[in-house]
Amino acid sequence: MLQNQRTPDKNKQKNYGMSAQNFKNLSETIEKTADITKEQLAFLLATEDDAMIQDLKQRARNTGDRIYGKNVYIRGLIEFTNYCKNDCLYCGIRRSNCHADRYRLTEEEILSCCKNGYELGFCTFVLQGGEDGFYTDEKICQIVSKIKAEYPDCAVTLSIGEKSRESYQAYFDAGADRYLLRHETADEAHYKKLHPAEMSYQNRMRCLRDLKEIGYQTGCGFMVGSPYQTVDTLWEDLQFIRRLKPQMVGIGPFIPQKDTPFGTETAGTMEMTLRLLSIIRLIHPHVLLPATTALGTIHPKGRELGILAGANVVMPNLSPVAVREKYKLYDNKICTGDEAAECRFCMQKRMESIGYQVAVNRGDFQP
């Protein structure tokens, strides 16, 4: 539950200062302006008007279909290390978590995951891990170079946290195409409540600017329902997305991990996540927008519902089954026991069940 938002009374919906005409055509207004006011956001997150929310989701879905058709792009996720130097209060692989069962994949194991994925039709590999100093810039560049040499028709996405501009440039020069770095919140005071003192909001913003300037297809994002989140902070997130114009935005519900300081906090909801997915599609129409594993974790049909709310990317796991349970950013993560082929074809059937098709190509951003 957002900190400054009460459960709405069905018989007395607040209008947040808007006229009846304004909120009657609210979804259409957001679609036409590709923008949203704080009052409009507060109303949409609180309303129990099912017809309005269905209109919001349908407009988002239509917008995505107009640009990308009925294609859902698959990315092969390789979680190659759960060591991390950081101590983020929400994350299960934070350095202070003595219960985490740590692991690192070798270069050979990473390349084996790519080989397996390529044979299954994956044309994007997402290398994700904690900020692990074991993987020096030289090692990362070598891994990226080998993947690109072996699979030149594929994209390589990195998601390995905050680095220097020089490091980002080196990875890019080695062949990395995309970089995912969730900003987590565009409100500095909120950022400080989610992270230890040694981490800097300004540095996170610097990283995202550097990535865009270097030429990466850049992804940002945030957790929905994170502790201390408010309508104000969410609106700042949406305005940040409008300013940055990232090629990708990853959002998913906050899910507590029991061995973290936020282990007993309330999880984010599926419905709020779906509404925000739709809003992001309308204010940044061309964005590549994942229906995340976290969304699938809190609801059996979460990823399908995410696609129907405007998302167009899914990321099945290519990591070795033996390590999947160990990459525990949050509790109760799904698909930890499935082989890569199971994940791939399960996802295909899930997308076909709602009228979409898994696209076996790089799935680049369409400007």
UniProtKB/TrEMBL annotation:
Domain of life of the organism encoding this protein: Bacteria
> Which Gene Ontology molecular function entries are recorded, alphabetically?
4 iron, 4 sulfur cluster binding; metal ion binding; transferase activity
Task: Identify the keywords attached in UniProt to this record, alphabetized.
Answer: 4Fe-4S, Iron, Iron-sulfur, Metal-binding, S-adenosyl-L-methionine
Q: Which InterPro entries match?
A: Aldolase_TIM (IPR013785), BATS_dom (IPR010722), Elp3/MiaA/NifB-like_rSAM (IPR006638), FeFe-hyd_HydE_rSAM (IPR024021), HydE/PylB-like (IPR034422), rSAM (IPR007197), rSAM_sf (IPR058240)
* Residues reported to bind [4Fe-4S] cluster: C84, C88, C91
List required co-factors: [4Fe-4S] cluster; [2Fe-2S] cluster
Task: Quote the record's binding site residues for (3R)-3-methyl-D-ornithine.
Answer: S159
Domain Radical SAM core: from-to ranges = 70-286
Bound cofactor: record note: Binds 1 [4Fe-4S] cluster. The cluster is coordinated with 3 cysteines and an exchangeable S-adenosyl-L-methionine.
Q: Pfam families, alphabetically?
A: Radical_SAM (PF04055)
List the protein's name.
[FeFe] hydrogenase H-cluster radical SAM maturase HydE
Query: Could you tell me the gene encoding this protein?
Result: hydE
